[in-house]
Amino acid sequence: MASQGRRGGVSLPERPSNNPSSILAKITRSSVVSRGKEAAGDAAFVAKKLLRSTGKAAWIAGTTFLVLVVPLIVEMDREQQLNDLELQQASLLGTPAPK
C-alpha cells in the first residue's frame, strides 16, 4: 500500500484504450482543433500584453495627474478663497467691489 503513488481519495476506473481510432481521438488530433488551440494561445498572449501595457499607461497617467494637476487644482481653490475673502472684506468696509 505505501509503495503506491496514490494517497487516499477515490480513483476513477481506467478507460479502456483498446480502440485508438475512436471518434474522440480523431477529433483531438484534427487540424481544426490544433489551429483552435494555437489561436487561443495567441489570443491569450495578445490579451496579456495589452493588459500589461494598459496598466503601465494608467500608472503613467495617474502619476502625471497627481504631480501636475492636483497642485493646480489646490492653487486655484486657494485663489478662489482669497477672492471671496477680499469681496467679503470690501462689502464690510463699504467700498466698491474690485472688478
Automatic annotation (TrEMBL):
Keywords: Membrane, Mitochondrion, Mitochondrion outer membrane, Protein transport, Receptor, Translocation, Transmembrane, Transmembrane helix, Transport. The chain crosses the membrane at residues 57-74. One of its GO terms (biological process) is protein transport. It comes from the Eukaryota. CDD domains: TOM22. It is a single-pass membrane protein. GO terms for cellular component: mitochondrial outer membrane. It is found in: Mitochondrion outer membrane. The keyword Transmembrane applies. Residues 1-23 are annotated as: Disordered. It holds the Pfam family Tom22. The keyword ATP-binding does not apply. Belongs to the Tom22 family. This is Mitochondrial import receptor subunit TOM9-2. It comes from Flemingia macrophylla.
